[in-house]
Specification:
The protein has 2 domains: 112 residues, no CATH class; 96 residues, Leucine-rich Repeat Variant (Alpha Horseshoe), CATH 1.25.10.10. It is built from 12 helices and no strands. It has 225 residues and is an all-alpha fold. Helix content is 56%, strand content 0%. It is elongated, with a radius of gyration of 19 Å.
Length: 225
């Protein structure tokens, strides 16, 4: 079985050039214009304008500046490291999304961020780049009862463990089969990355799950053996 992966970041964390940003006290006509200018810089080859956006007072402009630099191919790991320490969650979230292509950028702090949407995006990025270094953190986050308080974060952690496919994450994926339906579905899919008797037993138990989608995933995986 191959590790399941997704090229699409969590919808709750989208913060790209065209995404809707949460309103802040710094939003307004001036911010809209500066954000548009930052986005255009990414299309017009204006690296200086995109870099300047990173120092803007408005979080939405800073987040858009990151996207512009990425579009131009000049975004650096140091840019992302600084953005991961930004006071605004929207900027940290965007940095996590972009860090999926920068394996040298440490996501450990983002996985412990106080904002759940940042944590969710960091988990997605870790899975996309198959970051083995954070498997233990993801496993702890995914644990039903003692893991992250936000179910979307637990679900993202389970998905990342499946994408990484490291054996050390299997126990957490199996435990997630006792969580909420959406997380159980994600855990069943994640089992595609693992093999062995424990996986086979878990998939057969999934055939009796209360949620029909969990049962369907188990059926599909068992049929493909």
């Amino acid at each position: 079985m191959s590790a399941p992966r997704s090229s699409d970041p969590p919808a709750s964390g989208l913060a790209g050039d065209g995404a809707v940003q949460p309103a802040t006290e710094l939003d307004g006509p001036g911010v809209t214009g500066r954000r548009r200018a930052a986005a255009l810089a990414g299309h017009l080859g204006d690296a200086g304008g995109a870099h300047a956006a990173l120092g803007d007072d408005a979080p939405a402009v800073r987040a858009t500046g990151l996207g512009a630099l990425d579009r131009l191919g000049v975004l650096s790991g140091s840019d992302l490291a600084a953005a991961l320490a930004d006071p605004a969650p929207v900027v940290r979230r965007r940095a996590c999304e972009l860090a999926a292509r920068f394996p040298e950028v440490d996501l450990s702090a983002a996985l412990a961020d106080p904002d759940p949407s940042v944590v969710e995006m960091a988990a997605w990025a870790a899975g996309e780049r198959q970051d083995v270094s954070v498997v233990a953190v993801l496993a702890a986050m995914a644990a039903p009862g003692s893991g992250h308080r936000d179910p979307l974060c637990r679900e993202a952690a389970v998905a990342a463990l499946g994408a990484i496919g490291e054996q050390a994450g299997l126990a957490a994926v199996l435990a997630a089969l006792e969580d909420k339906p959406a997380i159980r579905r994600r855990a069943a899919v994640a089992l595609a990355a693992f093999t062995g008797p424990a996986v086979d037993r878990a998939l057969h138990r999934c055939l009796e799950d209360r949620d029909w989608q969990v049962r369907q995933v188990a059926e599909d995986l068992l049929a493909g053996e």
